Amino acid sequence: MKVLVINCGSSSLKYQLIDMENENVLAIGLAERIGIEGARVKHEVPNMDKVVIEKPMEDHKDALKIVLDALVDEKHGAIKDLKEINAVGHRVVHAGEKYSESVVINDDVIKALEECIELAPLHNPPNLIGIKACQELMPGVQMVAVFDTAFHQTMPSSSYIYPLPYELYEKYGIRKYGFHGTSHRYVSARAAEFLGKDINEMKIVTCHLGNGASLAAVKNGKCIDTSMGFTPLEGLAMGTRCGDIDPAIVTFIMEKENLDINGINNIMNKKSGVLGISGVSSDFRDIEEAAEKGNERAKLALDKFNMRVKKYIAAYAAVMGGVDTVVFTAGLGENSSSNRKEICSGLEFMGIKIDDEKNNVRGKDAVVSTDDSKVKVLVVPTNEELMIAKDTVELLK
Known about the structure:
Number of strands: 14
CATH class of the largest domain: Alpha Beta
Distance between the termini: 10 Å
Pfam family, one: Acetate_kinase
Subcellular location: Cytoplasm
Strand order of the largest sheet: 5-4-3-2-1-6-8-7
Site (Transition state stabilizer): 180, 241
Enzyme class: transferase
GO molecular function: acetate kinase activity; ATP binding; magnesium ion binding
Largest sheet: 8 strands, mixed
CATH superfamily of the largest domain: ATPase, nucleotide binding domain
């Protein structure tokens, strides 16, 4: 069974074609700058040269048509006929409280996603555009929606409810939803598999660390808490997001800087985090380089980020009544040995010990803790596309 995985952003469309008989990636690519000048598709098939297709794309439908043409192209295609694509799996950011697992897309699902637009105004609209474009260009092909929020729907109410007037939750759905759920689900399951253990008997903290970052407490295979909240702004100090702050700071800054809602949102979402502290960049590689050269603010930004992650790991161990495994994933988690070491430093009292030699690893499954570490520390590269494809196959069997 061949599954096309689609992930639509506001001006982009990421895709992978996966043969689920052996989980091999047949093609991978990115359509970018959709609707603006310089639109192009970067297309790659294993063992072939990368192809860049520069062509105007007014919308996601145009982009998808170029992608589908590339997949069957005589020179750089991955398949001979589009009929070989058995199903499409769509990444969808927000399903509110409507869905706790992936679903086959029908009119009711689309209506539900439209109702969730106000919860994810930047993400759900392009997700919906991608779904409708696929339906138009690939009639008769079954499609599945896989939600970033679904994995976190197992959180108990004590985790997801905010200490605000309860009627605000009832009226507007103001609660913790969490994000990166597909990644947290994949890496927790992969960690259990890698260790040869039953996930239903494990306590795992998953650390999805990148420009956007979150942690999840996964007990017996289910998420019981996560660091992102009503929006992806809550939790860690991220690339440009502030994460947890005193809420009174918001109105204080608005008054002092004479800002409206858009102005304060811009500061908290796009000018804060490690960028705001360091003044260097939102890219951790740039910040690490600056810190090594003696930039004190860059070092402070890294210290703040690592401290927040460390604090959440310890908190989630308390919430779960212990922890068996800590898993690092995503761009920073998979590739930065120094960040992993700094985060775990000081957690020896919990039974966490990093092995410097084992920790010298990038982008592959590995145990990076010492042999006598009571808590296993792992690196597990995330694979959200494969998780989406697996859900698609499972639902359409």
